[in-house]
Amino acid sequence: MSTTQTQTIGHWIDGAPRASGSGRTAPVYNPATGWVQAQVALADQEEIDAAIASARRGFEVWSELSMARRQSVLFAFRELLNERKPELAAIITREHGKVHSDAMGEIARGQEVVELATGFPHLIKGAFSENVSSGIDVYTTKQPLGVVGIISPFNFPAMVPMWFFPIAIAAGNAVILKPSEKDPSASLWIAELWKEAGLPDGVFTVLNGDKVAVDGLMKSPDVQSISFVGSTPIAQYIYETAAKHGKRVQALGGAKNHMLVLPDADLDLVADQAVNAGYGAAGERCMALSVVLAVDPVADALIEKIVERVATLRVGDGAGGPDGEPHLGPLITAEHRERVAEYVAIAEDDGATVVVDGRTCMVEGNEDGFFFGPTLLDGLRLDSRAYTEEIFGPVLQVVRVATFDEGVALINSGRFGNGTAIFTNDGGAARRFQREIHVGMVGINVPIPVPVAYHSFGGWKASLFGDAKAYGVHGFDFFTREKAITSRWLDPAAHGGIDLGFPQHD
Ligand code: NAD
């Protein structure tokens, strides 16, 4: 593995790149080659303080601008992003490893939220009630929080931050984004785009770092809220710590998503969707379907169809090559590849059959890349850690159940509740599933039911800590605080005089 270091990636503070003086860095790999392509700075307290101070100044300017002025910046950002998104996709592929078309897809889904946010005046307008009591009107306004923190995971370096920052900024806040240290460059590219779009300095800050930066943001009295996406143990830590420090907090965690396949389903459609949703982005998606719950007697036929399709999949450098774009790229790090391989070994030890084994996957010309081939497991015990825990790799598990009810009960007994899907032609069964399942996002013959921007994204149980989901109406509520004003313009002739009683209506 080469350790050639060409560059140190710093922060974006005060509308400009800022080199780090912390002396601490982490390697950023190209997962397709396995080489270290840069080092990313890990912020120290001085840099955290500088980021927060700049964001506070940015907030003072931005929150005073009219909605019309703010809206024009958002429109400019949307246009620039639309024109230049292939550049961002190339950065994502280089640091994350996902194939270029998938990186374009993640940007498109993030762009939806930018587009929603351009219509923010309609979404943050308050309410007005006239003459609630004699001569008295009540109205509510929605005001920005101030400086808000966003902490994002490695697997969607553009889309996940875009779940939050367009709405936060539209509503008048200043954002400090702490991206994953594994793929930090997308955030810096986005920061430059905001600058070009005319966003005042300090309104979008990128603070690179690790736990030190995250803890610094959570503990600062000048940061009003934390929006976190990542693994469940860290989400829970963030939720508890940020709340303890008086923050508004939303913390989205991990997942283990099941697809329930009823015997009447179109098995060719199901096999296509299981392969797409199980192996796309090498399984590094929180909405990936990792368990196929096959209601008797479809499991064997389904496995056969999945195996046929897996045989056609190509693994390789997400940037493409002489044979064009592969179907899936590498995993994020060698360490993560080891972890995924360990789960397959655990499954085997726990009695599973490894129907397709991706552990020995090797890509010619990229022998040091972090590749892991599509893997299919059958007959896994339900108490195996390989079943109960999130694997986050291209590993699809087939679990057999006798009935619809058994399938629903199994899904509901899990600790996660992010996404799920049912495949059937029976409308009654689908409707029961939708009502009875304890999961936040449900697909009916749709494998990855990520809601559009004007609905909100979020799971249940250990997949979301806090009350607020991402984007949609939840997003606008999260990034504003409501103020209720009760007003009376006195008619001098109707002066009420002194009355120390609790105000009542007349
Ligand atoms: P992670 O939890 O390791 O890291 C997420 C962020 O937290 C990073 O910015 C990281 O620097 C920071 N962090 C890590 N350890 C920390 C600590 N001890 N204290 C403070 N901050 C810390 O997650 P990841 O590996 O980057 O991302 C993959 C995980 O994210 C998976 O579990 C996946 O399911 C989940 N995810 C969930 C959703 C969702 O919507 N629910 C979406 C995407 C990813």
What does it look like?
The chain is α/β, with parallel strands linked by helices and 506 residues long. It folds into 2 domains: 8-253 and 463-484, Aldehyde Dehydrogenase, Chain A, domain 1; 257-444, Aldehyde Dehydrogenase, Chain A, domain 2. The protein is 38% helix and 22% strand. It has 15 helices and 23 strands. It has helices at residues 45-62, 67-96, 100-118, 120-123, 159-170, 185-197, 211-219, 232-244, 267-279, 299-310, 334-349, 385-388, 404-413, 427-436, 472-478; strands spanning 8-9, 11-13, 16-18, 25-30, 35-41, 128-133, 136-144, 147-151, 174-178, 204-206, 223-229, 248-252, 257-261, 289-295, 353-356, 375-378, 395-401, 416-417, 419-423, 441-444, 460-461, 464-465, 480-488. The strands form 6 sheets. It has a 7-stranded mixed sheet with strand order 15-16-17-14-13-19-20, sandwiched between helices. Strands 10-9-8-11-12-22 form a 6-stranded mixed sheet, with helices on both faces. Strands 1-5-4 form a 3-stranded mixed sheet, with helices on one face. Strand 9, helix 6 and strand 10 form a beta-alpha-beta unit. Helix 1 (45-62) packs across helix 7, helix 2 packs antiparallel against helix 3 and helix 2 (67-96) runs antiparallel to helix 6. It starts with 7 loop residues before the first strand and ends in an 18-residue tail after the last strand. The relative contact order is 0.14. Residues 1-5 have low confidence and may be disordered. The structure holds nicotinamide-adenine-dinucleotide.
What is shown here, in short?
With 506 residues, this protein is an alpha/beta fold.
